[in-house]
Amino acid sequence: MRIRADVLRTYQSIHTWTGILTGLLLFIAFYAGALTMFKPQIEQWAIPSNQQLAQVPSERLDELITQALSQYDKAREGFIISFDENESPMKWYEHGGGRGIRLDDQLRHASLTERGEIITQMSSTNELGTLIDQLHRTAGIIGKVGHEDLGVIVLGVAALLYFLALVSGVIILLPTLVKNLFALRQNKGSNRLWLDSHNLVGIISLPFHIIIAWTVIVFAFHDFFYGGLGIVYGDKPLFERPVRSNVEYSITELPSMATYRQQLSAMTHGYKIVSMAFSNLSTTNPALAVEVKTDGQIMRGGYSDFIYLNPYTFAVQFNTLNQASEGAYGPIVNSLFALHFGNYAGDFGRWMYFAFGLLGAFLFYSGNLLWLEKRRKKQAEQQASTRFMASLTIGVCLGSMLGVSFAILVTKWLYLVTHQVNSHYLACYYVIFFGAIIYSFVRNPALAAIHILKLLALVCALIPVSTLISPLFAPSESIAYASLGPVDMVALIFAICFYFCAQKVYKRAYFGERNSIWALSNAGT
């Protein structure tokens, strides 16, 4: 296919500058997004097993609820029933609660002894998975615009530019697409190999990237979209609001758990009930949020669907299940969420999105490296702007990965000294992240890349080691937690990959092209 040279140059310029302007932010978002595919597993791994109480048989839940409501005032305001074997059967917030992220929430867990007596214990919430997800949504940018995170808006703009980069990149490749798509030309130098890898990853994962780009734009600017619709609809509300009741309910009228299961059975056919969250029980506006999940079907949430109903009358106020009765709007919105979260194909789909997320991060990282090499070749000597971008690329990309890895590493150790671990996660991430950026500017970017990659390998390797040895330092009454899980095994694989990358960067720095921005002399060590 032939395309005029001037047209190709125009699209080359669009592709280059949209990529440069958004690449570093999108690298953070994609890397963190890959990890959030297994957010529940990360949080389960992070919470020590001794913070959860033993489950009780479903027929004894009413007994547990009755005792808790009679003895604890906070439980009467609202509580959560969990059916997960790895979680306490009942818990409620002694401090905090509700929507949003808070780092100091306090939970009371409750269960029954064999003799039917209630037992409780306090714990803080663990927000490790939520904070990684927040990093994915905002790229770590702090601040608010109205009720929306500033980082979400910035990433929405970045996604729009990113879509332009995708389209322009495809146009650039069209003339040689069939001939060179799978050609990884190692014999023509490392730059050519990087370019071939960049093009291959971009084309193969193009549908995924288009989905992510457009869904991010919708998520970021949905308020603006609704505002535009408001001009069309005028004073007529876009969504039907439920009629507020004047009836004040009493917690003594709460139905049994068997009644709830019977009422929900028709709506949740094919779904598994994960939890039931009760709130505002002694008011005119009581609520029950039922979390359900299934495999192989579209879900509105990242990991589950929800049904919101009145806990006394069972009147459904809203649900996210993909039902035909919701009309066209519901399935469309559900599809947008499911396409972004990758929850429509079970565990296989999550692993695919995990891989695509990592490949997306590679796409932005390699794009910056290719731009740096191209700039260097057009100049007689390396300019300060080129060195600045090289240091920024290394600091931001490798620093974000190191910050997340270090926050995961310290989890097991933080629980030995404090139960308020969430604020420490933030400190760990931002200190490591900005420390890596400063280091990459103080030292040569190539040398910084070698050192940070080796440190990444070490930190990831220490994650499973910490899982195994941290129980040895726990109080004697604590339950040992020394089994390696999927989080540990993935961390070990990452450690091997980072060490391999460090060796490759070292080889290129000392034995590669001497005029490259990544070249080092022996004196540079």
Q: What would the keywords be for this entry?
A:
10 strands; PepSY-associated TM helix domain protein; transmembrane; two-stranded antiparallel ribbon; alpha+beta; 18 helices; 525 residues; transmembrane helix; PepSY-ass_TM; membrane
**Beginning-to-end CA distance, first to last residue:** 48 Å
Uncertain stretches: none
Q: What is the share of helical residues?
A: 55-70%
Classify the secondary structure makeup into a structural class: alpha+beta
Portion of residues in beta strands equals 5-15%
Pfam families: PepSY_TM
Organism: Shewanella baltica (strain OS195)
Protein name: PepSY-associated TM helix domain protein
Transmembrane segments: 20-38, 152-178, 199-221, 351-371, 392-416, 422-441, 453-473, 479-501
Can you lay out the helices and strands and say which pair or pack?
Layout (H helix, E strand, L loop, with lengths): L4 H32 L2 H8 L14 H11 L1 H5 E5 L7 E6 L10 E7 L5 E7 L3 H11 L5 E2 L2 E2 H24 L3 H4 L9 H15 L1 H15 L1 H12 L23 H8 L7 E8 L7 E7 L11 E5 L6 E4 L9 H13 L4 H32 L6 H26 L1 H7 L4 H21 L2 H25 L16 H26 L14
Antiparallel strand pairs: 1-2, 1-7, 2-3, 3-4, 5-6, 7-8, 8-9, 9-10
Question: Could you characterize the architecture of this molecule?
Answer:
It is a single chain. With 525 residues, the chain is of the alpha+beta class. It is 56% helix and 10% strand. It has 18 helices and ten strands. The chain has helices spanning 5-36, 39-46, 61-71, 73-77, 128-138, 150-173, 177-180, 190-204, 206-220, 222-233, 257-264, 329-341, 346-377, 384-409, 411-417, 422-442, 445-469, 486-511, and strands spanning 78-82, 90-95, 106-112, 118-124, 144-145, 148-149, 272-279, 287-293, 305-309, 316-319. Strand 9 (305-309) and strand 10 form a beta hairpin. Helix 2 packs antiparallel against helix 5 (128-138) and helix 17 (445-469) runs antiparallel to helix 18 (486-511). The radius of gyration is 26 Å and the shape is globular. The chain starts with a helix and ends in a 14-residue tail after the last helix. The model has no long low-confidence stretch (mean pLDDT 84). The chain crosses the membrane at residues 20-38, 152-178, 199-221, 351-371, 392-416, 422-441, 453-473, 479-501.
